[in-house]
Amino acid sequence: MNLNELTIKTASAGLRKKEFSAVELTEACLAKIKKRNKTLNAFITVAEDEALADATAADKKINNNSNLLAGIPFGVKDAICVAGMRATGAAKILDNYTAPYEATVIKKIRSAGGIIIGKNNCDAFGHGASNENSMYGPVRNPVDETKVAGGSSGGSAAAVADHECIYAVAEDTGGSIRQPASFCGVAGLRPSYGRNSRYGIMPMASSLDTVGPMAKTVEDLALIMEVIAGHDPKDATTVTDAVPAYTEELEKSVKGMTVGVPVEYFNVKGIDPEVEKIIDAKIDALKKLGCKIVSVSLPHTKYAIAAYYILVPSEDSSNLGRLDGVRYGVRAKTKNLFDLYAESRAAGFPEEVKRRILIGTYALSAGYYDAYYKKAQKVRTLIKRDFDEVFKKVDALITPTSPFPAFGLGEKAGDPLALYLSDIFVSPAAVAGVPALSVPAGVTKAGLPVGAQLIGPRMGESVILRLGHHLEINQ
Description:
- The chain has 475 residues and is of the alpha/beta class.
- It has a domain at 3-249: Amidase signature (AS) domain (Amidase signature (AS) enzymes, Alpha-Beta Complex), CATH 3.90.1300.
- The protein contains 16 helices and 11 strands.
- The chain has an 11-stranded mixed β-sheet, with helices on both faces.
- Strand 2 (73-77), helix 4 and strand 3 (115-120) form a beta-alpha-beta unit.
- The longest helix has 21 residues, at 370-390.
């Protein structure tokens, strides 16, 4: 096995035993990036010099007491700031922007000895479900290069699946970690809202944005979460709850746990029969592991997409107001202030970003706020209550991550509504603020990965990571 194909756990063990160095591990990842990035387009920025310098420093410090992330190269979604490194958000309006500060989650990993290898491509500012809305070109799926990698964190998923980095840190607003994880065949976790700091993240929809890991195994996700989770004084939305020992939780038995199967997730028009069959097999696997499977209902789930696409564009339109060509980023050369705003934003935003800004501005405008945004917030409360009630009866839920496997590049590009429906299974948990995990469940006859989604109660990451780990090791 090549060094870049190792997991965090196996790579860390090798580094501690001095079987290879952090420099050699980093060089293996960089070599894969050089070989594949022109095809897959998973990285916008490759930090070769910085990564090798950090790896050299790590080799001098790594010992048996080092954090398991020490010396391990990772990718960072380009909507997350790294001090001194280019941060585009995959939009040309920030083509020349270098972040002057660092996201808290990145600072924690670097303090543990982690090595940033580069910034991953994504849908611009997180707007999309296919990674075709990047102004730096689409990301291709490493399993089948004619297919999308998923979005918006498609570059992170593709980089991990193609072994261009050992793991990645990404962002999930409505499914942006879980859906591409499913499409590319890796594990991805959306933590509870407030579990991880959002400081240093380019905001999309501030009341839904979360930061989470993508990795080759669920065990690796747990290792990363032990480092990045926790309260941050710079983010008032983070909780003060103690960070659990997630890796210790993995080893506990799942026997006797009750797992719910929401009927609404399996009665959806357009769900791929192969996907349904693969998820049914995972439900059977949980039964064999001693879990009790029960049918449950989340009656307001059907409204999640509608509420999501009012709430998110509304918050988008507000958050993106700061990108005007004046404060920072690319500035159009014009003779008056209005044209400066208009031309900078017209050239710097892709069509999907403009679409969401327009929808959000409309929804928040006088006379429409009560009819749209306020009503969507009320629906959001009902969706959250559904989850609260169902978690009084079950420990976790299992659903498909996506109703279909990865689709072809350009296949849905002309139909934004069809792309929005890609989020049909991942948006409810996001709207409710509860944790959700996508774990590889199998492949279709065409060899395309399919993910199973495990949803847990608020701050219940330990529960779904344990279930996901046992599903993974018992495949």
